[in-house]
Every structure is written in C-alpha cells, then in structure tokens.
C-alpha cells in the first residue's frame, strides 16, 4: 500500500473511534443526576440578565459538585436552561473554559423564551453544533454568533452529547443519530408555537444531519392550523452530509415547492480546504456537501477543459444557495470559516439578517453558487475583530 493510502487508511481508522472507544465510566449515571439541582423546579428563579442565552440539551449533567457540568454521555432526559458566554478559569494550574449556566423547568423555560421572543420581532435563532464539541466550546460558538450577528431575538443552543475528542468521531456520529428523535420533537414544539414568527436555523458540520430530517418531520407533523413558513432561513455551515443523498432528497421535503413559496431557503457554506470533511470523505467513501471535491474525475476533467476550477457542487434547485469559502479559508482545519474568516463572517451576518444578495459574492458558472474572494481593498482583514472572536481562542 502506498504511503498516501496508508495515511488515509490510518486516518479513517482513527476517525472511526476504534482507537478511543467510549465506555460507561466508573460512576453510575444515576449518581451524576441524584442531586436535586439536576431536576429544575417550577417557579425557581433564573437570572435572565446574567444568563441571557437559552439552551436545550440531551447531555448527562454532573451535579455532584458545586459546579454543575454537562458531560459527553447521553442524558436521561431533555433538559432546558439558560447560559452566558463562557470564560477561562484556572483549574489545577491549567486554564479551561467554564460556561455560567442554570437549569430551568421546561414550562418556565418556554414562558421565558416567549417573553424574549415577544419583546423582539418574533424571531428565534437555533444553533446546532457538530462533531468534537463540548458544552463549553459550542456555548462559546453560540455566544460568538450572538455577538457577531446582533440577532434581534433569543439565541437557543441545542447541545447533543458530542464527546469533544478527535478520536471519537464514530461515537459522535452514533450519538447524533440516537438524538434524532429528541431534536425532532424539540424543533416541532418550537415551530408549533404561535408566537414564533421565524426560526433561523444554523447547523455546523455533523449537526446538519440532525437538522435536515427534523425540518421535514416538523413540516409533516405540525399542529398549527394554518400553513406556516416559520422555519424559513436554514444555514448549513460545513455540513458533514452525503452530497449525493442531499441532492436526491432535498426537494422532496425540505425544499419542496410549497415551502420555498413560503420563503424557505437554504444557504450552504462549503470549502475545498476543509480538512475535516476531506477525512470524513475518506471514511465514508463519498463527497460531503460542505466540500466541493469532485468525486467524478470525468466531471473534474470537463471543468478543467473549460478553464473552470475543479470544484463540484450540489445541483441547483429553487431555494438553495451555495457559498464557496475556499479562497478565504481560515483556521487549522478550515472547518469553521463562518466563525473564523472575515469574508465568510460578513456573508453569514448578512444571511442571518435576511439579505439575499451581497456585492462581495462572486458569481460562478452556476447560478446558485457564489465564491467569496479576498477584498482587494482589505486583503488582510482582522478576522478576530470582524468575527467578534476573542484573540487567543483556540483554532478549529
């Protein structure tokens, strides 16, 4: 076997989780949640000023110590709560992220969300993270999205039990599929609320595989008497989704003509420099939606013969826009350009604000695909400042 093939095979084995499997641990899961703090009581006060952001989680909490933590294990129920942007704390000589948070009884949580939604424009932003995330890292990203976009409504983070470790991709994938029903039920409940006028969904990486089927289910099972397009603005950042499966199925439900007529749209952020999705392709055998890799060598040859970049995208359908961030990619893996690259962050902010076009997008030979390129007037922008990142944050 050639060295390059050996490297791909070794990487795929690593990503599969075979090297670092998950186990139950040395503590009974019931012991983690025995403390009453793991079961929020109706009417218990929560400081919404100090904890302005909302979360829903299926992670198992650890309530054995003064500081409640959310773990990578599957929880015994879906929990609701409030949180604030995490900060760095000293522990055993090391700096670590800590997220201020508090659980809230489900009914109280929904009432608080309604009050915040009613105060604004009836819009809710729902963020669903991807692979290799802890509650702290995904809370950091959710808080960054809130700062960067200035979104005029509540921000809700849905945190499923990702392990937060490079070597546990297969465990994350398994937990994500296990969580499909939980997320579907939550999204349906959110979409059914008459006070929710618009839901903006942002998913990253593996999170897209939770989001796409849940939207279709929410459409089919909605309890609302009137037809609604409140799940309207869907953003798939670096989606770790089979591109061919997406092409085959997306019009059948999520971008069905009646839904597009109600204003639904999907924006996909993709990059050929996305190393994480290149490894996912090596593992799964087929290209990912978040990478314009040409799986078909004949298609690549045809593009080259026409003088076009060898980049392949999903077929165009009404309601779908693809934004290629290859030329402005940032970060060690290029897997989070929407939070790392100034050009991509600016585009993302405009999409959140419901702007359908941007002068900074460069048209391609495909009407639904646009490229982001460096701005000649600002070739080296301050990515941290534009993306509202804290200098020194770890790269993706």
Automatic annotation (TrEMBL):
Pfam families: DUF900 (PF05990). Residues 373-396 are annotated as: Disordered. SUPFAM superfamilies: alpha/beta-Hydrolases. This is Alpha/beta hydrolase.
């Amino acid at each position: 076997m050639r060295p390059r093939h050996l490297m791909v095979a070794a990487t795929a084995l690593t990503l599969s989780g075979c090297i670092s499997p998950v186990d139950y641990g040395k503590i009974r899961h019931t012991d983690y949640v025995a403390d009453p703090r793991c079961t929020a009581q109706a009417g218990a006060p929560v400081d919404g000023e100090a904890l302005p952001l909302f979360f829903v989680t299926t992670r198992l909490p650890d309530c054995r110590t003064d500081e409640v933590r959310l773990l990578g294990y599957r929880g015994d129920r879906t929990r609701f709560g409030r949180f604030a942007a995490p900060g760095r704390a000293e522990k055993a000589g090391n700096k670590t992220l800590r997220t201020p948070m508090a659980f809230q009884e489900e009914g109280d949580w929904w009432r608080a969300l309604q009050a915040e939604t009613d105060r604004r424009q009836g819009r809710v932003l729902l963020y669903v993270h991807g692979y290799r995330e802890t509650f702290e890292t995904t809370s950091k990203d959710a808080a960054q999205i809130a700062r960067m976009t200035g979104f005029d409504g509540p921000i809700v983070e849905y945190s499923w039990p990702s392990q937060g470790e490079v070597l546990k991709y297969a465990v994350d994938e398994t937990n994500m599929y296990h969580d499909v029903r939980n997320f579907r039920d939550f999204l349906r409940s959110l979409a059914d609320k008459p006070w929710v006028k618009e839901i903006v969904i942002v998913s990253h990486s593996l999170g897209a595989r939770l989001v796409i089927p849940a939207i279709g289910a929410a459409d089919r099972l909605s309890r609302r008497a009137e037809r609604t397009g409140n799940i309207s603005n869907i953003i798939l950042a670096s989606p770790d989704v089979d591109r061919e499966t997406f092409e085959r199925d997306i019009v059948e439900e999520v971008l069905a003509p009646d839904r597009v007529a109600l204003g639904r749209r999907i924006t996909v952020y993709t990059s050929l420099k996305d190393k994480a999705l290149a490894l996912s392709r090596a593992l799964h055998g087929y290209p990912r939606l978040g990478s314009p890799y040409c799986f078909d060598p004949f298609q690549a040859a045809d593009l080259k013969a026409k003088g076009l970049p060898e980049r392949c995208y999903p077929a165009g359908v009404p309601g779908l826009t693809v934004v290629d961030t290859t030329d402005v990619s940032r970060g060690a893996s290029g897997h989070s350009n929407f939070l790392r690259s100034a050009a991509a962050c600016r585009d993302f902010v405009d999409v959140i604000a419901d702007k359908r076009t941007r002068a900074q997008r460069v048209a391609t030979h495909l009407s639904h695909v646009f490229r982001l390129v460096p701005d000649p007037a600002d070739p080296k922008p301050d990515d941290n400042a534009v993306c509202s990142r804290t200098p020194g944050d770890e790269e993706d």
